[in-house]
Amino acid sequence: MTRTAETMRGARRWPWPAGVALLMAIAAFGCGGDGDDEPGLGAEPAPGAADALGPYGVGVTTFTLDEADRPLPVEVWYPAGSGGTPAEYDVMIGAIKLASIESAHGARRDAKVDRRGAPYPVVVFSHGSGGTRVQSVYLTEYLASHGFVVVAPDHLGNTIAEEVNKSAALVPAEAARLRPIDVSVSLDALLALPQGDRLHGVGDVARVGIAGHSFGGFTAMRIAGATIDVDAVITECEGSGDLVCQGYEEVVEPFPISARDPRFLAALPQAPGGTKVFQAGGADGFAAVQVPTFIQAGTTDATTPYDYEAQLPFAHLPSPAYLLGIEDAGHFTFSDICRLLTTAGLTFDAFDDGCSPSNIPAADAHALLLPSATAFFQLYLRQDASFASWLVPPSPLPQGVAEFEVR
User: Fold this and answer.
1) What's the confidence (pLDDT) of residue 300?
2) Contact criterion met (CB below 8 Å) for 219 and 207
3) 3-state DSSP call for residue 85?
4) Is residue 89 within 8 Å of residue 134, measured between CB atoms?
5) CA distance to 44, 45, 79, 191, 279, per residue, from 114 (Å)
6) Which of 310, 302, 307, 311 is nearest to 330 (CA)?
7) Of 72, 120, 145, 295, which has the fewest beta carbons less than 10 angstroms from its beta carbon?
8) Which residues, 6 or more positions from 316, have their beta carbon under 8 angstroms from its beta carbon?
9) Which of these, 151, 165, 115, lies nearest to 1 by C-alpha position?
10) Is the peptide bond before 47 cis (omega within 30 degrees of 0)?
11) What is d(CA 277, CA 404) in angstroms, rounded to the nearest whole number?
């Protein structure tokens, strides 16, 4: 694994209560050192309220995971002290910069690590199909401010670059097979960073969760334990236009029934897809999920419709399970794609599903999503019961919230 040289250039109040080859590659990854720690900061700060930025500064850095023939760029957000430069995130198509967005929450690139609360809980973020590891900085930075390390790989072959260069794209089923592997090896890489690296020892293997948007939500379900009957999928999905149905008969490596990684203790799928695959042949793949799961979705999502891809999975998930439905939120509301397009002056009809004037403004939706997402990970990764009240549905529901269910 090698450190790249690339440099990629508050919240509204929530209205309810407060293998050997891999290790050898990792060993070759090491810049930073003791000077990357923030000295003399004192005791770990008290947890901040879930509806505002947390008590930590936000740092971000980038490395490349040399995994077989798929060198995965990985972004890591972490609690930060001083130093660094204002973060900016470039979305690249090869050597061409498609767009760039500024930090959502004042992150600084390559800032010193604030180790007052280290090792910190870890959340791995999985982007959507045709997306990018920096597509949801509103969430990844926010969690870092609350004392989480957030790791986000690019799922090579299923990123925005392959939306332009279709010849490099993976068939959806192969992407579905590889995505959980990307998640697991990215976590492995973080946890195995050698002494002297900036992020050595910053993540806690005993406190790990996953979040993901769209195909990343599917990935989160797989990591959490949701199962797939591949023979049934091949039979039932024949001729289907459902994205995640495509290409199972083409997958060279055996497609696993389960992709469960037992290190992951909580899952946050946002606008997830894949119900048809999880329930092919009458199976109930959702029933095999083994961790608390919180689905966040939008009522007007046309890409992964709310009733089929959010409400139905929620009804089949083991307890504890949560469902938050945002009124008038579309598919891309659950990302920073709308802000990215606006900043770049770009328009794509496909992104109207969440970025159109008929949708709730993304900033308003994010202000509704972030407090409960933060509380969910505080409760289930830190075991901090003081955040449980943020996950109790109020009556009446806040403006902009169509549904909030707990089981």
Assistant:
1) 97
2) no
3) strand
4) yes
5) 9, 11, 6, 17, 44
6) 302
7) 72
8) 284, 286, 287
9) 151
10) no
11) 25
Residue with tokens 């992150």: 107
Q: Report residue 49's pLDDT band, with 50, 70 and 90 as the boundaries.
A: very high
CA distances from 183 to 8, 123, 176, 357 (A): 22, 10, 12, 34
Please give the angle made by the CA atoms of 39, 40 and 46, to the nearest 5 degrees.
110
Please spell the DSSP secondary structure of 167-236, one letter per residue.
GGPPPHHHHHHHHHHHHHHHHHHHHTPPTTSTTTT-EEEEEEEEEEETHHHHHHHHHHT----HHHHHHH
Q: Tokens 């969440």 label which residue?
A: 354
Adjacency order of strands within the sheet including 120-126: 85-86, 108-109, 57-67, 70-80, 149-153, 120-126, 203-213, 264-270, 293-298, 321-326, 401-406
Contact 157, 170 (CB under 8 A): yes
Q: CB neighbours of 201 closer than 8 A, spacing ≥ 6? A: 118, 119, 193
Q: Would you kindly state where each structural domain of the chain is located, as residue ranges?
A: 57-406
The amino acid present at 195, given as its one-letter code, is Q
CA–CA separation, 57 and 41 (whole Å): 12
| pLDDT tens for each residue of 88-97 | 998 777 677 7
290-316 tens-digit pLDDT: 999 999 999 999 999 999 999 999 999
As a whole number of angstroms, the longest Cα–Cα distance in the chain is 62
Q: Within 10 A of 61 (CB to CB), how many other CB atoms are there?
A: 24
Q: Tell me the CATH number of domain 57-406, given options 3.40.50.880, 3.40.50.1820, 3.40.640.10, 3.40.50.740.
A: 3.40.50.1820
| Matching residue, tokens 């959980």 | 180
